[in-house]
Design brief:
Structural class: alpha+beta
Order of helices and strands: EHEEEEHEEEH
Helix content: 10-25%
Number of strands: 8
Length: about 140
Amino acid sequence: MANYVCSVRSNYVRVKDEQAFKDFIEDFDCELIRDTDGRVGFVCGPWDGGGPHSYSEEYGEYVQLVDCEEEIGRHLCEGEVLVIEEVGSEKMRYLVGISYAYNHKGECLFVSMASALREKVAAEWGAHNVSAAAY
């Protein structure tokens, strides 16, 4: 049996308080990165067994970084969109490519590589039997 192993990174955005954002992502074992324009992002991984998560005393359970849309939104400057991308696999049994987008209002959009392709096939070629690239 194998574990799902993934790597995660974000794009670069402007945040309201860099230190507060750094403290937030470090709770998920992510590392702050900067670009030459003064924007910040992060990288994490490889993660064994799932994506970045942290134990929440408030909830008494583990919380996934990608499920923290309200808190992520509070860090972003107005008009910024934080994109988090995850790639992973379980010993090539299946591959995962996921993208999340968060705005400063705490809203989240999600796209998976597999579902996006199936939707495009259906839109462009009509209904087709597209099997999963997994075993």
